[in-house]
Amino acid sequence: MQLTQFSDYALRTLIYLGVREGDLATIEEIAASYGISESHLTKVVHKLGRLGIIDTVRGRGGGMRLNRRPADINIGATVRQMEGNLTIVECFDIEHNTCPIAPVCGLTSVLAEALEAFMAVLDRYTLADMMKERRNLAGLLSISIEDDARRRPAIRS
Amino acid sequence: MQLTQFSDYALRTLIYLGVREGDLATIEEIAASYGISESHLTKVVHKLGRLGIIDTVRGRGGGMRLNRRPADINIGATVRQMEGNLTIVECFDIEHNTCPIAPVCGLTSVLAEALEAFMAVLDRYTLADMMKERRNLAGLLSISIEDDARRRPAIRS
């Protein structure tokens, strides 16, 4: 059982952009922070853009940012949109299936039921739930974020 | 979301052997029936043997067969045993993880919960449920099975 690399990288990108809040981020810096391939990430970012989940600013000093608040980005919906068809085994993709027993195999409906249960859990969470430890995430991703305590006067002083 | 090829091929092998009932089958014929790689299947069969799910007879005329009744082979248990650790994303395998945010990432527990829900569905089924259409499965796998009607006298004649 594996989440595809495509969904995995999409969720990592969204967490990164969530931590950055409105600041623009580039593919290069996200790939470097996670130590992952830029070319794989480029395809993921392209799709996130086409789906309207992120917003891209072209040119020098450009980059990407979230197009919605983290609380409005549902994890289940994102995985479904990124994957298109959830091909848990090859017979879920009728066009490319080579397994001869697909028409009468009892496993298909059981895997469909299990996949449904899996996605139902993801449907209950949003990107905001993924980044409750924003400050620690920023540290591990080498993102410098403004210190909230410095931005507003401390109440007790 | 994908079931690993390892689990996929294991389940296909068990369905094949279930259709064959007690008859011995070879890796060559299973690989040919499904149109899949013999070398991949060899590793799968080796593990199924080590787990005691199948029984192997060596030498000329040898092969493998199920070691238990299909109703006693649980699908969830089989997938868990075949996969060892269910590495849905790389951070589930601490030894090989490269993702820097693993210690504070909110996604890990959500994916663990979703995986649990997935496996809970598989735990409710056995190999017997997979092969309710045994006769049709045999046809698609080019397995000739004895006609049950011929083996015992028909009640009405």
Keywords:
homodimer, 157 residues, mainly alpha, Arc Repressor Mutant, subunit A, two-stranded antiparallel ribbon, 2 strands, 49% helix, 5% strand, elongated
Characterise this structure.
The structure is a homodimer of 157-residue chains. With 157 residues, chain A is mainly alpha-helical. Chain A has one domain (5-143): Winged helix-like DNA-binding domain superfamily/Winged helix DNA-binding domain (Arc Repressor Mutant, subunit A). Helices cover 49% and strands 5% of the residues of chain A. Chain A is built from eight helices and two strands; from the N terminus they run αααββααααα. A two-stranded antiparallel sheet of chain A has the order 1-2. In chain A, a hairpin with a 5-residue loop joins β1 and β2. In chain A, α1 packs across α3 (38-50), α1 packs across α4 and α1 packs across α7 (134-140). The longest helix of chain A has 16 residues, at 5-20. The relative contact order of chain A is 0.16. Residues 148-154 of chain A have low confidence and may be disordered. The interface between A and B is large, with 50 and 50 residues.
